[in-house]
Structures are given as structure tokens and as C-alpha cells.
Amino acid sequence: MSKGTLFIKPASPRSNWLDALVKTLNIDVDVVDYSKSEEYAKLFPLKKTPAFADSEGYELTEVLAIIEYLFSLASDKTLRGVTNKDQAQVMRWLSYVNQDMVNTWVDYLFVAKTEDAKKAASEQQAEQLAYINSELATRSWLAVDGYVTVADEYFFSWYAGFADVAGGITSAKYPYLTKWHETMKAKDVVAKSLSKL
């Protein structure tokens, strides 16, 4: 029996990867395009996605909270981090991507009104990507060295947009980030599903 419904916006990097995550976690959650649901607007008047609701009246918004709740329903929590320290690193990177990097992306696309402001946001996004590139010089994955986590998957969902804002990603400029991206596309189920979009 379904544990609830996850409403997503297929075009949004905040939620376009969650269907694949639900399948990877092997949890019984219905994933629905919010625009095709009459129930969604009644349950979530702010119209934020992703959003989760179950049959008992439990409602949840905000991607990081939803990720945490989905893991509470899963028996295999490896993608969340095996140890407490790994889990803290996963949350650190989820937060960094969702807050710092997405804010820069939003500044560039929606807030910046002048060419100077756009240039500043683009340079900031490039600095953020350079920081991640330097972090990946010492390990294979974003949060934990030994294995892929949900932090890698969430960052992957934003990767193309961040690259566009920063003026592209080349292997000469970001060799470790490029290697990580290629490895994700080849090995991770969620990344493979996003690559088909």
C-alpha cells in the first residue's frame, strides 16, 4: 500500500530527480506531476514543489525535509550516509547546493538586472564550482569518499544549470568535476535517469 504521494515539477532540478530516488530506495510512494493533480492545489495552497502528502493528513514541503522523510521510509539508507559523520557530510553538501549555489543561480537568472550583476553572479557560480572541483581532487564523491550519496544526486540534478550560469564546464578548467560528472552518468541510477531528460 502506498505510503503517500510525492508531487513533483518535472522541469525543476529540485524535484525532477526524486522519482528515480523513490525507485532506488524501493519505497511505495506515488510520484505525480503536480500540474496533473487537482488534489495538489487543495493540499498545498502555496504551490511549492516538491510536496508530500499521505492518507493520514501528513503534509510536507521543502526538498531537504522530503529527502529526509523518504529515507525514513526506506530500509536501505546507504545513500543518506552510513555513519553519523557521513550523514552530517551529506547534509552539509545538500545544504550547500540548495542554499549557496541555488541562490547564486537564482541571482543570475532572476534577480540580476544589469550586466555587472549578471557577471558577478556568474563569477560566484564559477567560484563555487571551482571549490567543488578542488574538493573532488581528494575523493571520488561529493560527501563521502567511498560511495555515492544523495548529495551527489542532488548536485547532479542542478549541474547543467550551474554550468550554464558559470559559463560552462570544461575538463581543462574543472578536471575533477568533469570526471565526477562522467562517473555519475555511467554508474548512478538517478543520474542516468536525469541524463535522459
TrEMBL record:
Pfam family of the protein (one):
GST_C
Under CDD domains, the record lists: GST_N_EF1Bgamma
Query: Which GO BP terms, alphabetically?
Result: translational elongation
The residues covered by the GST C-terminal domain are 83-197
Q: Name one GO cellular component term.
A: nucleus
Q: Which Gene3D superfamilies match?
A: 1.20.1050.10, Glutaredoxin (3.40.30.10)
InterPro entries on file: EF-GSTs (IPR050802), Glutathione-S-Trfase_C-like (IPR010987), Glutathione-S-Trfase_C_sf (IPR036282), Glutathione_S-Trfase (IPR040079), Glutathione_S-Trfase_N (IPR004045), GST_C (IPR004046), Thioredoxin-like_sf (IPR036249)
Taxonomically, which superkingdom? Eukaryota
Q: Which family does it belong to?
A: Belongs to the GST superfamily.
Q: What is this protein called?
A: GST C-terminal domain-containing protein
- Look up and give the organism this protein is from: Pichia membranifaciens NRRL Y-2026
